[in-house]
Design a protein that fits this description.
Elements: E1 20-33, E2 36-43, E3 46-52, H1 59-64, E4 70-79, E5 94-105, H2 122-127, H3 129-132, H4 136-158, E6 162-163, E7 181-183, E8 191-193, H5 199-207, E9 212-221, E10 232-242, H6 246-264, E11 269-270, E12 276-278, H7 279-286, E13 300-301, H8 303-306, H9 312-319, E14 332-338, H10 344-356, E15 363-368, E16 371-373, H11 375-380, H12 382-392, E17 399-405, H13 407-424, E18 432-433, E19 435-439, E20 444-447, E21 452-455, H14 466-472, E22 482-487, E23 490-497, H15 502-511, H16 516-529, E24 537-540, H17 544-552, H18 582-587
Parallel strand pairs: 3-5, 6-9, 11-18, 12-19
Antiparallel strand pairs: 1-2, 1-4, 2-3, 4-5, 7-8, 9-10, 10-24, 13-14, 14-17, 15-16, 15-17, 19-22, 20-21, 22-23, 23-24
Helix pairs in contact: 4-6, 4-17, 5-16, 14-15, 15-16
Length: 596
């Protein structure tokens, strides 16, 4: 028999009854039932119940073991009696009668329990992450992550993609976040940067003549922690394709994501064909470019009902139209329907919530006995109120909320109000994965602080209409071949058809106020490569952590990451970041200039 085990702790079944077996694992818990000792033994694969009675030669040893000791158990597999069967365990129809116990490793007093899922302080959990990872749910999440990544790799290879690795030590590149810098010993005074993403490299892979690239890519950004992104590092399914249009990218990515969520979604509905929603439409209907389509609420422009109306607050606001551009800069009144929210109590709660969000309030009308109620209905009058009700298809027991002003100022709040209403009224479905593509992003935006035009998103995107659009259209009217894929209100990734022509790139950067020298200095490798024949190409990079987070049903990325940092980007378990030694600093020709 093997030194440590003949079976794993998740392997034994009724067909093994009568066999003498050997298991090794951690003591999950010990239970004393009137002279009988029950030891639940756990390993990576599962849990097996082991029993020692006072007649067993191993009984004395069994009395000494404690939670999380590592032990070896020899014994005979027996069938459990009918009343003791545990159908929640794959091994729940059998148990081992212990003949021998060997303690392989004793455990000190635990700083946090492993049995059960108690809510312990995160700092403790991260400091003792090796213990935290033994807990059932977290252990399951990490295994799920591995299975998802394996499935992604199979699906990408089956779709004709080839996996390549790109450098980790590279040059600093302005991509929206701070770089992590690595001082060079061999080149005093110079630094490498850890890649924020393999963006330039994957485009150069296309220029080099490879056709369909992918990589499970580590990315590094020196930014604050968020619930949906770990500080320091994260992983993405990075991919790029040559000689493709936007449709080609969608047709390649959709089956991978849809199949993945069908495989691991536990039967939950997955969007069969991802709808495409233009950016401006997403902002108007949902108040965000990351719409959660499980929420059926769609907002609409109700300005025509209030212009010149008896509700003077909104009517006066609509008279002073801003001299800005199009609808987004002009005063409007938006309606947010709330089916099932037709009570004064709910409306008052929403109004109080809005004030807690820093808003003056949230106007509303609620409907009962065929009429509208509330101050706005009284001022609008019955005729206009009924017109509004019919237009929004509202009935008794429903309500509608209003936000007013310049949409660019209130759109974020309106989106959060829509989400709040959907959640509180339980309108938002919880048993599905609703995907969409958000398309037609603006290429440029006006930076009010700097008083200049700036790239609104990815500077490497191809403008729709190419060079002609850049030369002959108002820059703020130019759209980009850029897209996001969104699931349940979570942005999984941004992507784009790339700007692969030097003259278009030069013009796009000039509009944003950057000369050719900036291209040469910051993006020289890629800019020069495009001058030697670059194919049209495009790609995307869905976040692995966010995909796993959705499929695991958690809202915190640290619950699907094996060794995450805390909110302050500290690794409490390994003690990073740590102060360098004087010898290390001398080798790197660095002198510290610490803040006071």
């Amino acid at each position: 028999m093997h030194r440590y085990r003949s079976h794993t702790c998740g392997a034994l079944r009724e067909t093994d009854v009568g066999e003498v077996v050997r298991l090794s694992g951690w003591v999950h818990r010990v239970r004393d039932h009137g002279g009988l000792l029950f030891i639940d033994l756990r390993d990576h694969y599962g849990v097996t119940q082991c029993v020692a009675d006072p007649d067993s030669p191993a009984f004395a040893a069994a009395e000494t073991v404690r939670a999380e000791w590592v032990i070896r158990v020899d014994g005979e597999v027996k069938a459990r009696t009918a009343e003791t069967i545990n159908d929640r365990l794959p091994t729940g129809h059998v148990e081992i009668f212990i003949r021998e116990i060997e303690v392989l490793s004793a455990a000190a007093e635990l700083p946090l329990p492993v049995f059960g899922e108690p809510d312990y302080p995160e700092e403790t959990r991260l400091k003792y992450r090796f213990l935290d990872l033994r807990r059932e749910q977290l252990h399951r999440n990490i295994v799920l992550r591995s299975e998802i990544i394996s499935s992604i790799r199979r699906r990408m290879v089956d779709a004709g993609f080839t996996e390549f690795q790109t450098p980790i030590l590279t040059a600093s590149s302005p991509e929206g976040a701070r770089d992590f810098l690595v001082p060079s010993r061999m080149h005093p005074g110079k630094v490498y940067a850890l890649p924020q993403a393999p963006q330039q490299f994957k485009q150069l892979v296309m220029v080099a003549g490879f056709d369909r690239y992918f990589q499970i890519a580590p990315c590094f950004r020196d930014e604050d922690a968020r619930a949906d992104r770990s500080p320091g590092e994260f992983y993405q399914l990075d991919l790029e394709m040559s000689f493709v249009t936007q449709d080609d990218v969608f047709n390649a990515v959709e089956p991978v994501l849809r199949g993945l969520f069908e495989e691991f979604g536990d039967g939950r509905h997955v969007t069969p064909e991802f709808p495409r929603i233009p950016y401006w439409r997403a902002m108007r209907l949902y108040g965000t470019d990351k719409p959660d389509l499980r929420n059926p609420i769609e907002m609409s422009d109700a300005s025509h009902h209030f212009r010149g109306s008896g509700f003077k607050v909104f009517a006066k606001l609509l008279e002073s139209r801003d001299s800005g551009r199009e609808w987004f800069d002009n005063a409007e009144v938006w309606a947010i329907p709330a089916r099932g929210g037709g009570s004064r109590a709910f409306c008052d709660r929403m109004n109080a919530w809005a004030q807690g969000e820093g808003q003056p309030g949230l106007g509303y009308i609620f409907f009962r006995d065929g009429e509208g109620a509330g101050p706005i209905a009284k001022n609008l009058g019955e005729t206009v109120t009924q017109q509004l009700r019919q237009e929004l298809d509202l009935h008794d027991g429903d309500a509608v909320f209003f936000v007013a002003g310049v949409p660019k100022d209130f759109v974020d709040f309106a989106g959060r109000a829509r989400t709040r209403i959907g959640d509180v009224l339980e309108l938002t479905a919880t048993d599905r994965f609703d995907f969409c593509w958000v398309v037609d992003f603006p290429m440029f935006e006006w930076d009010e602080d700097e008083k200049k035009i700036e790239f609104s998103h990815n500077p490497f995107s191809m403008p729709q209409g190419g060079l002609d659009a850049l030369e002959n259209k108002d820059p703020l009217d130019v759209l980009a071949w850029q897209y996001d894929v969104v699931c349940n209100g979570v942005e999984l990734s941004s992507g784009a058809i790339r700007n692969h022509l030097p003259e278009i790139m030069k013009k796009a950067f000039a509009i944003a106020g950057y000369g050719e020298e900036v291209l040469e200095e910051k993006f020289g490798g890629m800019y020069r490569a495009f001058q030697y024949g670059a194919p049209p190409h495009g790609g995307i990079a869905p976040g692995i952590d966010r995909i796993v987070m959705l499929l695991a049903g958690t809202e915190n990325i640290r619950e699907v990451t094996m060794f995450p940092m805390n909110q302050r980007a500290e690794d409490l378990m390994m003690g990073a970041p740590a102060a360098p030694t004087l010898r290390q600093l001398r080798e790197l020709h660095i002198r510290l200039n610490l803040p006071e």
